[in-house]
Amino acid sequence: MKKITIGEAARRSGVKVPTIRYYESIGLLAEPERSEGNQRSYEPSHLHRLAFIRHARELGFEVEAIRTLLALQDDPNQSCASADAIAKARLIEVEQRIRSLTALRTELEVMVEGCGHGRVDRCRVIEVLADHGQCMHPHH
Predict the structure, then answer these.
(1) Which residue ranges run through the membrane (predicted)?
(2) What is the architecture, at CATH level 2, of domain 1-78?
């Protein structure tokens, strides 16, 4: 594949142009060579790295975790224990978020079910929002 412009790299990778520039500025993506007109010229390796970063971001990995994962990818002969630890930590975060969202859903269901669809002065939704002490789950 011949070298491509940043716009084409963005189109092919699904990563926006400003985000590509940002990844370059923070060192997640190596700056590409420049053409005689000073335009960036991307190679397939850049597109593979952008796809990796995009997928990791979609899974919710933070930039520093991605940086570590990229370093591991760049040296494939090392142990994958660090990658496993990063993925396990992310899984714990997701499980905690699921518990929190489940509690939130339950709270909202109780609020909606308790609503008499009458007047605001007897509205359960307004009561609970006005007094956090009435919530079933204090940490939602």
Answers:
(1) none
(2) Orthogonal Bundle (1.10)
